[in-house]
């Protein structure tokens, strides 16, 4: 996929938003059943599939994913799409008959784990200073960036609590695993931030989009949102370029930006690594993508970038799965 091609639909989306009187108001995004979650990648389609199955029920859900991947947004979407949508969300004191969202459940102290387990099992709790138990009817949705199974093995998390809260798992992919969603996310955040800061920004150059798609994103979607807002606030032009994202180079490596010849050598290293992985998997792109930690479309995008540099790549792209 060519970043230049990705820039066109993004620009059209922004032009439409800039011409609208309601541009400042969040608008539905891709994802038919959960319109305010941005992403159309294969990994996100899998997430949507699980969400559709559990949204209408009362099963407790555990959302796993790195920091910044949007776990609370998923929890809110499940609540808004379920039978408790008209009831409260989040706080324990007000959550009766609603949805209780517990973020970073993996950090819960052992004595609090025991108390939470009892509340879930008995559907009762006693107020601080009180003596009479109170009934509570809530759906519990938890989120964590920890490996709870590992925490159980290490004795840091109760196994019985785990099976109570994790009736259904939703695993959120890191942004680096769904890079094809970056143009959609950029368009979404650019529309919101440009409206919030009253800036007339038309979009990003193809070069800037390519640089953002190639970045590793240790802070995931939260980091991308922060970078877009910073670029909008500091922008002097109506079109953002790579220069508006200096952290791409600062965060990628401690040394100053490398010269063009050196970057070319790194490009060759990446290309060879991808080819070696494809050869290891007997040219199975799906398996190679899993080993590389990227999506199949992300692998296809990288192969397209190297098309013409190596005859083996041309054969892979035209020969299909092998």
Give me the CATH fold name of the largest domain. Rossmann fold
How many individual domains? 3
Largest sheet: 4 strands, parallel
Average predicted confidence as pLDDT: 77
Question: In percent terms, what proportion of residues is strand?
Answer: 5-15%
Unreliable stretches covering 5 or more consecutive residues: 1-32, 253-264
Query: How far is the first residue's CA from the last residue's CA?
Result: 21 Å
Q: Helix and strand string, N-terminal first?
A: HHEHEHEEEHHEHEHHEHHHHH
Task: Report the C-alpha radius of gyration, rounded.
Answer: 23 Å
The helical percent reads 40-55%
- Supply the CATH architecture of the largest domain: 3-Layer(aba) Sandwich
CATH superfamily assignment of the largest domain?
Answer: P-loop containing nucleotide triphosphate hydrolases
CATH class of the largest domain: Alpha Beta
Question: Would you report the number of β strands?
Answer: 8
- Shape designation: globular
**Number of helical elements:** 14
Summarize the structure.
The protein is of the alpha/beta class. It has three domains: 3-27 and 177-252, Orthogonal Bundle (Helicase, Ruva Protein, domain 3), CATH 1.10.8; 42-172, Rossmann fold (3-Layer(aba) Sandwich); 261-319, Arc Repressor Mutant, subunit A, CATH 1.10.10. 50% of the residues lie in helices and 9% in strands.
Describe this structure in words.
The chain has three domains: 101 residues, Helicase, Ruva Protein, domain 3, CATH 1.10.8.60; 131 residues, 3-Layer(aba) Sandwich (Rossmann fold); 59 residues, Arc Repressor Mutant, subunit A. Helices cover 50% and strands 9% of the residues. It has 14 helices and eight strands. The strands form three sheets. A four-stranded parallel β-sheet has the order 2-5-1-6, covered by helices on one side. A two-stranded antiparallel sheet has the order 3-4. The longest helix has 21 residues. The chain is globular, with a radius of gyration of 23 Å.
